[in-house]
């Protein structure tokens, strides 16, 4: 009986040890599974973070490119506006110069006309003066001649 009891006890112990070992194994497996799951979750999290960072970087790069494009467009628009303004100014200057030239021409024409009028007037005046002088001279000559004739006559008579 004792032998049987001892055997039973041994079996019981063995079973207990086996059960404990099984339990331990199960625990170890569960722990390993848990660790694996954790590692997987961490890896997933890291991957997601990396993806998010990459997306963020891409978005930033896109935004920067858009900003640069906008700046370039603005610069081009400003250049075009400046060019237009310069052209307008040049046109205005040309118009002003043309106006000035026209005014100068008109002034010259007016001066020329005035000069011609003055010249004409002066000639007329001169002519009149000359005519007057000429008449006077002619008259004087005539008068002297007449006078001379009279004197001559008188002188002849006296002789």
From TrEMBL:
UniProt region (Disordered), positions on chain: 1-159
Superkingdom classification of source: Eukaryota
Feature: compositional bias, Acidic residues: 1-113
Compositional bias segments (type: Basic residues): 117-159
Protein name, UniProt field: Uncharacterized protein
Naturally occurring in which organism (per UniProt): Petrolisthes manimaculis
């Amino acid at each position: 009986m004792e032998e049987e009891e001892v055997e039973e006890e041994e079996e019981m112990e063995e079973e207990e040890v086996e059960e404990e070992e099984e339990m331990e194994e199960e625990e170890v497996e569960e722990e390993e599974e848990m660790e694996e799951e954790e590692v997987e979750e961490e890896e997933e999290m890291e991957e997601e973070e990396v993806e998010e960072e990459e997306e963020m970087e891409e978005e930033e790069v896109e935004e920067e490119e858009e900003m640069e494009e906008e700046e370039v467009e603005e610069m081009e628009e400003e250049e075009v506006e400046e060019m237009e303004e310069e052209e307008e100014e040049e046109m205005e200057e040309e118009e002003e110069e043309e106006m000035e030239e026209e005014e100068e021409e008109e002034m010259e024409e007016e001066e020329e006309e005035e000069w011609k009028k003055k010249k004409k007037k002066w000639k007329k005046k001169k002519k009149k003066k000359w005519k007057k002088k000429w008449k006077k001279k002619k008259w004087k000559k005539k008068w002297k001649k007449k006078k001379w004739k009279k004197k001559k006559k008188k002188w002849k008579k006296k002789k």
